[in-house]
Amino acid sequence: MIRLLFVFLCLPLMLGAAETRILFLGDSITQDGRWATLVEGALRNTDAYRDAEIVNMGLGSETVSGLSEDGHAGGKFSRPDLHERLGRLLTAYKPTLVFACYGMNDGIYLPLDPQRQAAHVKGAIRLKAEVEKIGGRIIFLSAPLFMPDTPEKDTQGYDKVLDTYAAWLVSMRAEGWETVDIRPDLKRAVADEKAKDPSFIYAKDGVHPGGDGHRFIAEAAVKGLWSLLKLPGEPVLPTGDALKILSERAGVLEYAWLSETKHLRPGVKAGLPLDEAKKRADDLMVKYKEAVK
């Protein structure tokens, strides 16, 4: 009886401990690293994920739909398609848990179109199948906001397109999908901040958030993740030296893994050789754990 009680009490930790290789996927907002590192820090504040391996492999301009507009990047290159590199990522890193945040680029910044939406849906379904094929678990996050500071300039109604994509993700919960819609909380956070400070800007270019925006994304993300991952207590985002060290560590691993898995996007800095990056990451993890004591 005592042994059974012990196993029952430890089961949540045992289940969490099995998910030790976490992978972030997404576009430039994810590659930026700020919201992903905040989420990583919150997870590392829990017993279940304190020592998990966590790597961000977001890639700028990428889509899950495989679409690209004419003349993207001044005609220099088409948008990267996640599925071109996905097999290499999954084979090399072998994630047990994937957080995927796509949609911002998938509608190509044009009005809602059934074919473009179908490509987004098809790409997300394919992503889920590929992750589950290797025994992994995937949680989808909806895309962040588009032009919340200047909605009058959103002449294509693109933020409504992203609302539609998010609504589809939410609807897939009925099919057993695990999804977090960050958009409602993100909209409230931006509105609250603007009420306090009318000069507040979420994203200067309408797409890429500033520091506060990344924090809002992280807060919305962990709110949903805590429920799905059945984590105790309230999530605590890292700050100060702990955040600085964790951000450095995340960047070292991110660019090493992007180089190792041979992405095709021009303009991304080369990372360290993977063995060297892992050693550097181990050293930084020691410093991080000292900082959070």
Structure description:
The chain has a single domain (20-46, 57-291), classed as SGNH hydrolase (Rossmann fold), CATH 3.40.50. Helix content is 51%, strand content 8%. It has 293 residues and is α/β, with parallel strands linked by helices. It has 10 helices and 5 strands. α3 crosses α8, α3 (34-44) crosses α9 (240-260) and α4 (82-93) packs parallel to α5 (114-133).
Task: Note the main attributes of this structure.
293 residues; alpha/beta; Rossmann fold; five-stranded parallel sheet; globular; disordered N terminus
Uncertain stretches: 1-17
CATH superfamily: SGNH hydrolase
Tell me the number of structural domains.
Answer: 1
Helix percent band: 40-55%
- What Rg is obtained from the alpha carbons, in whole angstroms? 19 Å
Describe the sheet with the most strands: 5 strands, parallel
Side-by-side strand order of the widest sheet: 2-1-3-4-5
Structural category is alpha/beta
CATH architecture: 3-Layer(aba) Sandwich
**What's the assembly state of these chains?**
single chain
**Cα distance spanning the termini:** 36 Å
Average residue-wise pLDDT? 94
Percentage of residues in DSSP E strands: 5-15%
Query: What fold name goes in the CATH topology slot?
Result: Rossmann fold
Identify the overall geometry.
globular
